[in-house]
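Whether sequence alone determines local backbone shape is best considered at the level of individual chains. For completeness, the protein is quoted in full, as a sequence line and a line of structure tokens:
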Amino acid sequence: MKEKKVIAKVIEVRGKGCDLGIKLGDEYVIDINKSEFCGWAYNAIFPYAFALKFGGTFPWEKEGNTTCVACPDPYNTVVFRLTVLDE
């Protein structure tokens, strides 16, 4: 199965925001070999992005090509929407 491209878009920022400057509306291409942003957020996102990259879906989502994941900071949480790009 061919690997699909997954985008993580910041859809919510709670608290004072990310210390590394991640802002509402930021988008990142998820690469399974490296990260362009916070390691904590990347580690939270990775299992979901990996599943989506290879055709996985999540039963709690209405759309099969997307899911939401939050970074683990309970006080300054960043929420990402992961979406498979149609190519």
In short: Helices lie at 39-53. DSSP finds one helix and four strands in the chain.
